[in-house]
Design a protein that fits this description.
The modification N6-(pyridoxal phosphate)lysine is found at residue 220. This protein has 406 residues and is an alpha/beta fold. It has 14 helices and 14 strands. The strands form three sheets. It has a seven-stranded mixed beta sheet with strand order 3-9-8-7-6-4-5, with helices on both faces. The chain has a five-stranded mixed beta sheet with strand order 10-11-14-13-12. Strands 1-2 form a two-stranded antiparallel ribbon. Strand 6 (160-166), helix 7 and strand 7 (191-195) form a beta-alpha-beta unit. The longest helix is centred in the C-terminal third of the chain and has 20 residues, at 269-288. The chain is globular and about 75 Å long. The relative contact order is 0.12.
């Protein structure tokens, strides 16, 4: 017995279909109403046919039957199946935010006495989660240079359970060698977890490169318009079953409405990422020639130290970049304050271009010495390049940069 309407017809999993087809078709199961678009199941619970049916559903530990929306909901399941197909994973679980995805992953695989090796170039909240909260429960974290494979190797021991990395990293856009670090993880019987937020599966599929688990802030590019909060964890069936157990019990779950928004975002994901990449490349090339700019961090530039690696494991170079200006914090703030169109906000992955000063926003709670080790200077600005006309983006940034160049 299944919990779906007997007249429901499951859309093909499109296992062998191209990326765009899977992004539009995978996971939708039409109900008896024969709807063309995916419905939103805004219900907290589901009705059973009998006491025996209820018992059967509750005995299932995999979330296959609709019981209670904290851990089973058809709209959320649709999103999970579609994202798993795009990441080439066996299964995904949706969460309430990107940080909830990371926390749920840690809770699923770590216990007191375990250790994590993490690249030092990660989102500030990830650093805070590890240093202030996971440490309270006896989990030790060692931070290493993303590019130093010897440091990754030396930091691992018999207690290491997870190697965690962002690539490209936030906010420096550094690129890590996923296959090489995966090999190190597996040699030490640990899992490699990759935050794929900046690239999305449209540009990079870490599971194909050797990673065990991929985490996402769906809030960013998967949505694409800054409308909703959400996260996801993708991997093999056994691993994601353990993460699902955390979400089911602790409740950091994705709402059905947000899942529906992310489904709509996935439909245009590759097309949007292509446009983000084109604008970002053009902006990086313009910035590096500007006299007020000291350095541009974008892996699409040939002079970027990991340009060749990025070319090998990414389809294109992404919509995020950072750059350093003259004048330290005062200069950086002047550039921000002279903008008229670009949004001053710490989000990313939106159709609208956004700018922020990492040292005083996203990484403000990171210790100054840790910021310095990660390359985050007071003159660094991060730009999430949007989909506006490139000339308008350039003109808006030029207002502040010209005051520094004079």
């Amino acid at each position: 017995m299944t919990d779906l309407d007997p007249l429901a017809q499951a859309a093909s999993s499109n296992e062998h279909a191209a990326f765009d087809t899977r992004a539009i078709r995978t996971g939708h199961r039409r109900t008896a109403e024969r709807e063309h678009g995916e419905p939103i199941f805004t219900t907290s619970s589901f009705v059973f046919e009998s006491a025996a049916h209820a018992a059967e559903c509750f005995q299932n530990e995999n979330g296959e039957f609709n019981i209670y929306a904290r851990f089973t909901n058809p709209t959320v399941r649709n999103f999970e199946e579609r994202l798993a197909a795009l990441e080439d994973g066996e299964r995904a679980v949706g969460t309430s935010s990107g940080m909830a995805a990371i926390l749920s992953t840690f809770l699923a695989f770590l216990e007191a006495g375990d250790e994590i090796v993490c690249s030092q170039s990660v989102f500030g909240s990830t650093v805070g989660l590890l240093n202030r909260y996971m440490s309270k429960f006896g989990v030790k974290t060692t931070f290493v240079d993303l590019h130093d494979l010897e440091a990754w190797e030396n930091a691992c021991n018999e207690k290491t359970r997870i190697l965690f990395m962002e690539t490209p990293s936030n906010p420096m856009c550094d690129v890590g060698d996923i296959p090489a670090i995966a090999e190190i993880a597996h040699r030490h019987n640990a899992r490699l977890v990759v935050d794929n937020c900046f690239c999305t599966p449209a540009l990079q599929q870490p599971l194909k490169l050797g990673a065990d688990i991929v985490v996402h802030s769906a809030t960013k590019y998967l949505d694409g318009q800054g409308r909703a909060l959400g996260g996801a964890v993708v991997g093999n069936e056994d691993d994601i079953k353990q993460v699902f157990g955390v979400v089911r019990t602790a409740g950091p779950c994705m709402s059905p409405f947000n899942a529906w928004i992310f489904l709509k975002g996935l439909e245009t994901l590759r097309l949007r990422m292509e446009a983000h990449c084109a604008n970002a490349m053009a902006l990086a090339q313009w910035l590096k020639a500007h006299p007020a700019v000291e350095r541009v961090h974008y892996s699409g530039l040939p002079e970027h130290p990991q340009h060749q690696l990025a070319s090998q494991q990414m389809r294109r170079f992404g919509g995020m970049l950072s750059f350093e200006v003259k004048g330290g914090r005062e200069g950086a703030w002047a550039v921000i304050d002279h903008t008229q169109m670009i949004s001053i906000t710490a989000n990313l992955g939106d159709a609208k271009t956004m700018i922020t000063h990492p040292a005083t926003t996203t990484h403000a709670r990171v210790a100054p010495e840790a910021r310095a080790a990660a390359g985050i200077t007071d003159g660094l600005l991060r730009v999430a390049v949007g989909l506006e006309d490139f000339d308008d983006i350039k003109a808006d940034l030029a207002r502040g940069l010209e005051t520094l160049a004079s």
